[in-house]
Amino acid sequence: MTADERLKICENCPLWEVTDYGPVCSKKKYINSEQKTSLLKKDGYVKGCGCKLLFKTKNPKEHCIVGLW
Questions:
Q1: For 12-61, what is each residue's pLDDT tens digit?
Q2: Where are the domains positioned within the chain?
Q3: Strands 16-19 and 22-25
Q4: pTM listed for this prediction
Q5: Other beta carbons within 10 Å of 7
Q6: What is the β-pairing status of strands 30-31 and 46-47?
Q7: pLDDT-derived band at 68, boundaries 50, 70, 90
């Protein structure tokens, strides 16, 4: 999977957040495997990683915390 394909997946994720530093995986939200989000920690939910997605998607050793790529 290419970096562009990964980034496109991220753009459609509810954790996508655009900041002054570019798009990031929001640390303000939690998400489950069904892509439902919460502002509060819940069982079965993981917190957004906060990574800068323009860099993370280009690194083949990285992965999506939700398992989308």
A1: 999 999 999 999 999 999 999 899 999 999 999 999 999 999 999 999 99
A2: 3-56
A3: antiparallel
A4: 0.87
A5: 17
A6: antiparallel
A7: very high
* DSSP sequence for the chain: --HHHHHHHHHTSTTEEEETTEEEE-SS-EE-TT--EESS--TT-EE----BHHHHTT-TT---TTS--
Q: Which residues fall within 8 angstroms of residue 44, CB to CB, at 6 or more apart?
A: 32, 33
Distance CA 8, CA 2 (A): 10
Sequence letter at residue 27: K
Looking at the DSSP assignment, which residues form a beta bridge with residue 19?
22
Q: What distances in angstroms separate CA 23 from CA 15, 29, 32, 35, 62, one per listed residue? A: 10, 15, 20, 18, 16
Count of residues for the chain?
69
